[in-house]
Amino acid sequence: MHETSYVSRLQERVDTLGKIGRDPSGGITRPFGTEAEREARRWFLDEAHRAQLDVSTDSFGNIWALYPGHHPEILAVGSHLDTVTNGGAYDGALGVILGLESIQTLRERDYRPQYTLAVVALSGEEPNSFRLSTIGSRLLTGMLSFKDVAETQNDQGLLLSEALELANAPTGNHKELGVSRLRGFIEPHIEQGDRLQEQGFPLAVVTTITGIVRHSMTLVGEQNHAGTTACEKRRDAVQTFAATMELFQRLRAQFAGEVRGTVGYVNVFPNSVNIVPSRVEFIVEWRSPVESVLHFAAETFWTQVQTHVHEMGLKVSRKVILSQNPVAMDPDIQILLHQGIAAYYPQHPSLVSWAGHDAAHLAKRVPSGMLFIRSNGKSHCPDESCDFSDMAMALRVLTTVLTRWDQSQSI
To answer: Measured between alpha carbons, how far is 160 from 149 in angstroms, rounded to an integer?
Structure first.
C-alpha cells in the first residue's frame, strides 16, 4: 500500500469520527457515558477489526487493538475518544486515529514486531456527568479504585458501573490487559496551545505534563434585603468574592510564566436581584510544571483569602478537589521521539504540556511519552483545528518511532 493511501485513510478516519456527536452549533459533544460516545466506541471497534487487529475491552472500558508480537508485553500508543461538551474534533481523537493508522500501516508493511503493539482508546479522559476525569487511565494504573467509584451516579441516576457495562466493559478482573502487561505508552496529541504555530514547527516532544491543583472555596456572609440594608452593614458574599479576585489577579501576575491560574466556576446564593447574597462557591485552579511553585502559589492564595475574608467579617472554607503534581516524561522515549522528528526537522522544540493528559497517570507506572502536533491554538471549542499536513507528518514520525521503540527493547 502506497504512503498516499495511508495518509488518505487517516484523513477519512478523522472526518468520519468528527461527525459522531456533532452539535447543531458545529461543535462535538460526546462525553463518557453518552450515546454519542458509545457510537464512537463502536466506530473504533469496527475500524480496528477492519485493520485485522485483535480487539478487546478491559473492565474499565479501555479498548485495546493489538498487533501481536513475539512477546506478549505491550508497547501502546493512543489517547481518548470522548470530548467535552461542544468541543473539537482533534483533542484525544487524533491520538487514537494516529495510533491505529501507524500500527495498521506496520502490519500492512508486514513488519513483525518483537513486542505486541497496541492502540488503546482510554475511557472518560474529559470531565463528564459523573464528575470524574481520566477514568480509564486512573483505574488501569490503580490511581483510582473501582470499588470507590463504581456506585458514583451521574445527573440522570446512572451508575458508573452501569455506564461501563453499556460501553461493553466486561465484569471481573482482566489481568491480561492490565498495566502489568504494559511495557510503555506514547500519547500523540494536538498541542491545544499556539506555541508550535508561533514557532513554525509541526511537531514537538513533551518533557513534562503540568501539575494541577483545584480548590473549591465557599464564602459565607449574611442574606438580607437589598433595599433596606445599608452598604456598610452588609456581609455581602459577592463583594467579598470580588475582592478575593483582586488578590487572585495580583498573585497570578506575580508568578507570570511559571503558573497559570483560573477561576472558571462560580455559584452565587440565592442569586436574586433584590437580595444581598449570602454565599459564593467558586473553584480556583492552579497549574505549573514546577511542583514547589505550584503548591506555593496555591497555598499563598488560600492564606491571603482567609485573612481578607475574616477582615470583612465573613467565613470561608476550602475543599481540595484535585492535587496532581507535575509528571516528567520518560527520557528514553523523549530521545526516540526527537530522533523520529529530526529526520524531517533537525531543529524542533521540546515543550511542557499545560494541559492534563492520560499519559500523566500512565507515566507513574510505565515509561511514557507524548508527541505534540501543531494546532491552531484553540481547543475545547468548535474552532479547534489541525492541518492535514501536520497530521500526516505525525503519522510518518510515529510509524518510525514505533519500529525503533520495538527494536530497542531487550527481551
So the answer is: 7
Can you tell me the distance from the alpha carbon of 294 to that of 298, in angstroms, rounded to the nearest whole number? Answer: 6
347 contacts 199 by C-beta, under 8 angstroms: no
Instruction: Show the cell assigned to 303.
Output: 492564606
The three-class DSSP label of residue 30 is coil
List, for residues 52-96, the tens digit of each pLDDT value.
999 999 999 999 999 999 999 999 999 999 999 999 999 999 999
Q: Please identify which residue in the block is written with the cell numbers 491505529.
A: 100
Q: Give the model's pLDDT for residue 1.
A: 55
> What is the C-alpha to C-alpha distance for residues 403 and 308, in angstroms, rounded to an integer?
58
- Give the per-residue pLDDT at 410: 61
* Average confidence score pLDDT of the chain: 94
Per CATH, domain 211-324 is 3.90.1300.10: no
Q: Note whether 284 and 215 are within 8 A (CB).
A: yes
Position 368, amino acid: S
Distant-in-sequence, close-in-space partners of 196: CB < 8 Å, separation ≥ 6: 202, 203, 204, 349, 351, 372, 373, 374, 375
Domain 3-210+326-408 has CATH 3.40.630.10: yes
Mean pLDDT of 10-24: 96
Q: What is the pLDDT of residue 177?
A: 64
Domain range list for the chain: 3-210+326-408, 211-324
Position 220 pLDDT exceeds 50: yes
Distance separating the N- and C-terminal Cα atoms of the chain: 31
CA 35 and chain centroid, separation:
20
Longest dimension (CA), the chain: 81
pTM above 0.70, yes or no: yes
